[in-house]
Amino acid sequence: xxxxLAYALMGMLLSVASCSFTNKSFExxxxxxxxxxxxxxxxxxxxxxxxxxxxxxxxxxxxxxxDVIDPTxxxxxxxxxxxxxxxxxxxxxxxxxxxxSFFNLVYDRLIQRMEDAKGIYKEVLDTPFDxxxxxxxxIDYEKLPFAASRKDLKERWRQQLKYATLGTYDxxxxxxxxxxxxxxxxxxDEADQNVLEEEVDDEISEETMNPEEAEVFSRESTRKTxxxxxxxxxxxxxxxxxxxxxxxIVDEFDPHTYYFAPDDKEKFDVSMSGKFEGIGARLQxxxxxxxxxxxxxxxxxxxxxxxxxxxxxxxxxxxxxEPINIVGMRLDDAIKLIKGAKGxxxxxxxxxxxxxxxxxxxxRDVVELEESFAKSANIIKDNQKFGLIDLPKFYVDFDDxxxxxxxxxxxxxxERLKEAGAEGLILDLRDNGGGSLKTVVEMAGLFIxxxxxxxxxxxxxxxxxxxxxxxxxxxxxxxxxxxxxxxxSASEILAAAMQDYKRAIVIGSQQTFGKGTVQxxxxxxxxxxxxxxDDLGAIKLTTQKFYRINGGSTQLEGVKxxxxxxxxxxxxxxGERDQSNPxxxxxxxxxxxxxxxxxxxYDRTIANSKKRMDNSAQIKLIExxxxxxxSKQDETVISLNYDAYVNDEEKAKEKSKYFKTITDYDxxxxxxxxxxxxxLFVKDSVLQEKRDRWHKNLAKDVYVEEAVNVLQDxxxxxxxHGKLAAKD
Length: 728
Description:
By secondary structure, this protein is α+β, with helices and mostly antiparallel strands. The chain folds into 3 domains: 52-252, no CATH class; 276-368, PDZ domain (Pdz3 Domain, Roll); 371-519 and 530-720, 2-enoyl-CoA Hydratase, Chain A, domain 1 (Alpha-Beta Complex), CATH 3.90.226.10. Helices cover 42% and strands 16% of the residues.
């Protein structure tokens, strides 16, 4: 994002806010009302396309808030909804007058109903389930009415809990085959999380039980899960639920405008920078303490070597001070005690896996989440070498751009691949949800001489063209970009620019996600001259739309691949067009640019690739699998009869076996790490194991295989062009 834009917007807001909020008085100094007033003010003044807060807006907030806090309709009764409906057309008036009566009523009732639910689920789970009974459950909860009475609500819980136990019951009655065993992933995808909220406690056991034992086991397993869930809910405070209400209001403006509570803002910053200061361990709350569920390579815990996955932290002390007992404490609060500034010491009282007690002192440090960053690999085919760069997101440190960021990292990987002899380059942007606008402009400049990369327009203003002004070209060889339905925002800017320049061939889904908007993060405390409420958090605000250099918007439409190949998401509703309240598509005048002239027969290369894909048995199988997954997703009526369940599972198992050959595919390509990474393996076996698994998966990836084929075609075209030029 452009820093000057953020400052300009901040200046505009501050100039008005200084008189709007300095002396404003709120009854009982209510922080919630102040927060509501600030956010609606910022939305009105700063949003790209502000909405009118009227009765229609009120109805949307009413319906969406109820859906957010009770999506499966197992807390509220119909009589509650009827009582809430007195506010259905009044929420707009309440927002404008900073009245939170609607929220207070719903929140108080929710806490009451959740307390009732604790009794209901225990009553239900005290009674054995009859799996011989022929009955169904409809899991399309959106169409489900709210229960008319506690009796009806208990029946709803019974069906939902019976449904929840079926899989566990089946795993204990029938011994799983080898194909059904679960392989836990080595890498954790949630790189922006410091804790894991879920963990698989019970692995599939090879020991079978008789039906009576299995029925008891499945109920108790479900009871344990619900006990832990309600324990987590009990840790939530009123302010946590109010954040949900605020974000329901904010979400009406567009899907990417979002309010960050103070802790959430910190997590967002971590996700964007890929680093934080702490001990380098992911934790999960347990009744006995905070359990270590993952150790981050290179962090203090990893370097120290005394702690391991499964150890439980019971007490936390600071620099030799009296330790604080964290057993029963909110996990977020415990993490605040454990994390801290680089160079400081934390003393952890730990119960080891073997039951022994120990005190481990660690010096906190900057922890980098390796899985957040760009990584590269050599690809060897027919004595030719190509390079692949995987980029999970366009990361950046907003406080210091000179720190590690996606653009500089990709530049380093490009240089390393060039030195290793790469003759073509693949940039993998699949599942990349975007990030910093500045990094994508700089990154695009690595592949062209100079020129416009993206056009940006603010509300009611003309367009700004963001150019690459550096005439150096770091990579002038063949280039392929891989995308899918989850490639969004900055990924779409890069793919679109390279496509418009005819600089790269884009291979992937029919269209990418379709997010064509720019957000700025505005700290709310900067909008009030005096603040007695501590940190007020921040709002991520949609302030601009971006456009391709050809003038078209990626909003809703995304980027259409040059070579369309199906994947498992092909028929699933995932894009911007499937989100709530997206902004519309439009277009503006094109920028002044010239297409790349480094290769000839660009169109022939695309035609050849399409022909290969059309004749690929692997691609046909993937598309068939995608259609099957969509059909399974559309099934909302599920049998709760065990025999019917087994019959459905057997059919699904046969289909799974059929589609298993997708993962058996072998491209015959060889993947290897670059020299600098191989040197790291000497001290980091975990990193080596992660890379080995990544390379193994890449070798099964038909999209990467086709990308290499395209690179070969582009390389051959270039050679042919060179020979013809020499003759002339």
